[in-house]
Amino acid sequence: MVEDIKKGILETLIHAGEDLSSRFIMRKLGISEKYKNTFYLALNQLRHEKKVSVNSRHLVRLCADNDTKIPATIISLSRGFAFARPDDGGDDMFLRAEDLHDAFLGDSVVLGNIRQGQKGPSCEVMEITARASTAVSGTIVDEGYGEELHPDSAIRFNIAIEDYPHCGAKIGDKVQADVSRLPHSSRFIARVLKRYGQSDCASICADAIIDANGIRPEFPADVKAEAKAIGSRPITEADLVGRADYRSWPICTIDSASAKDLDDAISVVRTETGYRLGVHIADVSYYVRSGTALDREARQRATSVYLPDRVIPMLPEEISNGVCSLNAGTDKLTFSAVMEFDSEGNMKHYEFHKSVIDSKVRGVYEEVNRIFDNTADEALLKKYAPVLESLSAARELAGVLKKKARANGNFDIDSSESEFVLDENGRCIDVLPRHSGPSEQMIEQLMIAANQAAAKLGKEKKLPFVYRIHEHPDPDRVDSLKDLLVAIGLNPACLSHTADITTKNFAQVMDQAAGTPKEKVVSHQLLRTMAKARYDTKPLGHFGLALQDYCHFTSPIRRYPDTSIHRIMSAYLAGESKTEMDRKYTEFAQESAKHSSEQEIRAMNSERSADDCFAAEYMEQHLGEEYEGIISGVTMRGVFVQLPNTVEGFVPAASFTDKHFEFDGQLSQVDSATKERLTIGDALRVKSVAADVSSGRIDFAPAGYNL
User: Fold this and answer.
1) CATH number 1.10.10 given to 2-62
2) Total-model pTM
3) Residue 4 in 3-state DSSP?
4) For domain 70-130, which CATH number applies: 3.40.630.30, 2.30.110.10, 1.10.3210.10, 2.40.50.140?
5) 108-117 and 70-78 strand pairing
6) 3-state class (DSSP) for residue 635
7) pLDDT tens, residue by residue, 508-519
8) What is the CATH number of domain 135-199?
């Protein structure tokens, strides 16, 4: 333990780039008073080893001649320098070009020779532990130096193209190229491998984004063959052996009108003491068996990817839209969670069964919302007649569950998600904020309940498992949040005990901003403050939902962690021994949690990049128009402004020609003469002046500016 603490002390000092108090380092490392003596033993050992010094004010300083090695990833390349990001977090590390030692963007490296400078820590690549792909997407440009590749990735300079033209590419095309370093030189050369098409088309740019992130749109032939065989197989009596028969229950699915992969259905009835909820999930693991080509492909993909113009599914359509889709009026094999709740929303009992259902209605969110707000016509009420009572009870139960969640500290965050409207050619013609109506919120609450029950089962039975976890926020991020709250005129008193922050404290912050122009900004900042959710084999709880037990059980068609725990839970229900389950599934769960977390990040990055391209495509059609927006971010160079439709653009500080704005290092651009401020949360009228579809960049300028 002492050695681990010593390593933690050194890395904390390196990442901070400044002297730190011993108490602060203790808190940063999460060391409790119980282990205080162990911490100071480690600190004293570092002093004797001359790796740190401690002054009379108990400030700890890193000595210059340390041999600390830090695993990291190269995250950006510029002419003459680069940056690497430590794998365990902390500040990015500066590297001179000569200290890269042939490392390239995305390479996993070990950093050493750490030294502190006025601009933070700098270092040298001591070892390259894993090479990233040298394939880079970008646009062919000619800015007076001949044909060059303008990379989409974090390579901050153009690269000369070898043997131009190639693959039929021309100026303005989006391409994929292989980038290599010229021998005995710091210069790079790009060789075009693939042409996508014109870079001013968002759909073309999405093709490049998919490739750049290693996402395969097509399935291999053996996977398609397996899916076709499974998809054409009817349900037999043998398939029903041992299954609970819920075909008489008032079950329905509720999804968007365009959805084809209907993987969850619900049924709710009122009981003498409360409610009985059934959440019936497509039994994907029954069809996608371990060791098959179909399973290997699903495990590798780990998640479906949702872009504005397409979905790249985890499973082929014969599975996702066919045999596993819970279409109405058809017998379907399911995995059901049946839960009993009292009138206050407490889960009193839960059980899981392999089952067979017959969904009575193919529900649509917009239609159910019309039923809930009493605007449904007679035809719609007739369609939903078999499940109207169940829907009424479901809405009632969801309200009870939401009230209970709020009492526990759960709160709503505006995630500013966008909905893109495309024309028949796939071109973006509108961007709208995505809204969640009563039926969407109802389904969310019922799915959370089923996910919670599955996690309870995994923990109580000590099964190898894949949990969805959301750890407590980093204290430094909470401190930054408090600074922002003060700057925008809110009271951060509820965050005073930084080390013991609860979800209720964040809910109190959100309550202050609710219904004000600051609400979106506070939502955004709370999201930035919280840790990223991920998968783990340990039940570490979910901070954002204020739950001790949580997993993903309800979407096995589009998420492999759900399929993983379906497989594990199926073995448990079949009576496999604890010893046998540990042998078969411990390593499987670990690999699934780790790989699925990595693939989720890849999918999210792809989705966000594509969203940016489609937003820029929309704004390109509206250059010169003016909008009222809210400042959503502040940097050294200017401010980001978000429009009511969720589109975000950048306003350079230099574009305020009558002002001399300077970044205050925190939340504002401040005019050095008048002290006028541009702060996160402020309203700002802007004009759309530029939009680059290829990069997804949108530029605004101040319009009607009058502070």
Assistant:
1) yes
2) 0.84
3) helix
4) 2.40.50.140
5) antiparallel
6) coil
7) 999 998 888 778
8) 2.40.50
